[in-house]
């Protein structure tokens, strides 16, 4: 059919008549409508089809390249797009905390009022005695004991101090960790303490402490955050012994961390005895041995406290018989160490029989000794009264002897035997001590609360149903303290009785203490027998009247009454002449203020009195021809306080043996001082100061940091803060390099971290920039000088010739330890050098000086001019200047301005001008320094690096990981030994200090927290490579190989100090011929 074009327009649209009739259209429309309804209904019930758009074409402008903020952060998050900075570049994104972490303390002065509270609304801790009674009892030195509480880290010293302090306070909840609401600024927090600083503005204190861990003597914020003691803390309390006789206990709690071991020295100086706390499971480790050696060096008797006996039951789960052998091995180890280090001293060994060994669990609040257990056992028998204090001492000693060692108890015969009644019979210590302890702990953990009161009643322990339903930790503390201490004694009675019996009172301990600490002539303070005549001494030999006071005290009977009244006439008056040893400075009241702490040795120190202060190192008559009163100053004691941990008691005066805070004198000395009466130096000047604190060789500060203020204009604040920091940290050293860089030196990371926190928050109050940690090196020589080096003074009138050679490690270590002194008689020094170090008598007699420190310098200067044909008498006028130049040179060596160690310098020849003006100190000192440097450079110089001795306590499964971590840090494992009675291993190793930063964290990560380590400075080790070898190429940003370590360390140290990278011998030699010979020698050595 042909297409009719007339039916369409020019665009192809149909314009013709309708294609069908109306009826058919209607029918078709109705049919289509029904069909559409059916399709719509079907579509509503049909599953939804998702269109696949993966192959669809999307235009570039419609693509989504990044997820929306709603997809990333979720709904309800607002995204702000800023095109400009809203803050300046000097404003930090996270603002630093403006306030400092406040320490937790009570009110400043104790006032015995019931309604006395702090501004925060917390009650002042009330004592069970009055301060007047404490002061009255302290008048009798025989009722005073001064002790240092020492022990390794986590041995429980501070918790043991809590046991003592709890018995002295009315509110024991302060020390049992009972929670109370404490207002901290605008917050209220659950805390284990019932008082805080009155002016606390910002609540930045750590979380609550667990039950029984209040740590009352840890008052610093960082101490509570770290749960370790960082500074030594004194406290004076009054506690009764087993006989009910009150004693004044001066207690110094010391840190156990090896990095803070410098805090132990002040405690040992003011103490008359040591209470060594050791973990019953870990045993005697290296840190405990070092503390025993320190006590022996101070001639201090020892009381051993074996703490954490609960760990034997709850953690180690040793059978009672094995636990006995574990404890016996520990006591024998302590006695063996005492015998090893106390040669020449009369320090007795410790034994449970006489009560010098105390068993304790400070966490659960109990102490126990065999004499007290024997007295309580005898008091329960029909033959003795019910009061244990009234049991005859002879009977107590006899029974205590049968409770330790190879002694057995036969229930059938009710007698003790030396042989076991049966093959499986336990020793008497197991029967009477360990088995009851195991039963108490087992019953507390396994018995249902409803049946526990009846079970404990069978053991003689009263327990209420409410107490039986308490928390398991609280329940164990209640059961153990009631069962193992027992009425009528307090939890601390066993320890107090041991201290009162085995530690001397202040006057009895004066003899050995003054012989070691007082720099003047010895005073004959020796305990005498009853039939000996009274000791006598001239005024010069006894300038403080101590001999007469000791004699009068020995002739006076102690008061019969337990209560010492204020007007008791049986106590002799204290010596008229004052002598006070100030050993430490403490932060006081914020704003960087300091207060002095010391011990009254003789006389009476009164608040408001004027005294004369002798600085550290004072010598009567002055030093080096200075004024006679050099090192002295007149000061006024503004106030006196007795320390009690977090608060203090103001007192008007203090007598012999008292420990006091002294106000008004802190700004007059650096670290230690001596106080005497104003007229003590007139007319008799033979009054000396106390010696500096005996800081051990292993306490050397070898880790250093460079500091500078964030705002340069705040430099004076930082310098003042560094001065106060050095005053409060015994081992911290500060130094300014020639480049102006300011350094602080410490023993480890913890010490420097604590010092920086004090500097920022307490003393300076500014932001400080800190460098990466580095270490101190030493310079030495390994061969004698290949040439005799000489140098001429700038005026050309004097010539000095010097040679250098190694000194030897044993002699170097003894010099650094101060075991040799030029103050000895010449014959004595010659004998020691001949017998111990194989020196000839002529060389020993030629020793001029030690350096750089006159007392502990590890280098020697010898006068060998006689061998060179020079008259020694002609050299004598310049000896002081030559010695000064030698000490200047050894203080900073030629390689990288580090101290010189282990070098013997011999002065071979000295040509001096006749006129004094031509051989003045200005000519001799710098010339001696130059020739000393030249002699070292010609003697094969080497660098020495410090080495840590590492002791790692680890389970056997982690030993391989320990070896891996040690080897990665250039360390080496020296050995491994099993810890008796435990499945743990003790690994001994050595690690260079420069590679030790972060070692503890790395070790815990690799061992999953199962290994614990302690790092102590041990020795200096020579780096074998040559630091002057210019042929060694160092790649940037790469670790140096072992053959290049010495040069790498030297170049980096010189660069840090602003020195040129090359060490030139031409700076120190004037003669051209000698310079050419020296250069040829060095070149030949490098080529070879």
From TrEMBL:
Protein name: Elongation factor tu GTP-binding domain-containing protein 2
Highest taxon above the source species: Eukaryota
Organism: Thecamonas trahens ATCC 50062
Keywords from the named record: Elongation factor, GTP-binding, mRNA processing, mRNA splicing, Nucleotide-binding, Nucleus, Protein biosynthesis
GO cellular component, one term: cytosol
CDD domains: eEF2_snRNP_like_C, EF2_IV_snRNP
Region (Disordered): 17-46
A single MF term (Gene Ontology): GTPase activity
Compartments, as annotated in UniProt: Nucleus
Comp. bias intervals (Low complexity): 20-32
Gene Ontology biological process terms, A to Z: mRNA splicing, via spliceosome
Domain Tr-type G, first and last residues per copy: 142-384
